[in-house]
Amino acid sequence: MVGLELDSGAVRWRGRVPLPKSPVQGGIAPELVSYGHDLVGQVGGELFRIKPQLPQGG
User: Fold this and answer.
1) Is pLDDT above 70 for 19?
2) Alpha helices in 1-58 (DSSP H)
3) For 8, how many CA atoms within 13 A lie in the half-sphere containing its CB?
4) Model pTM score
5) The pLDDT value given to residue 49
6) How many CB atoms lie under 10 A from the CB of residue 16?
7) Backbone angles phi, psi at 22, to 5 degrees
8) How far is CA 20 from CA 5, 6, 16, 24, in A?
9) How far is CA 46 from CA 4, 18, 22, 41, 57, in A?
10) What is the maximum span of the chain, computed from C-alpha positions, in angstroms?
11) Distance in angstroms (rounded) separating the CA atoms of residues 4 and 7
């Protein structure tokens, strides 16, 4: 997953989303909510957490 700067489209952060163990139906996007400085999501009935890491100096 990649976070982009709205004005310029520059990459602000990158994160990895663990793939669920069960098959995921095509065309279904993960649901995401912010939780503090993290993103929590659900895909295929499994929860995941992303801790965005800004690049050095950003």
Assistant:
1) no
2) none
3) 4
4) 0.51
5) 83
6) 8
7) -90, 155
8) 28, 29, 12, 7
9) 25, 10, 9, 8, 34
10) 39
11) 9
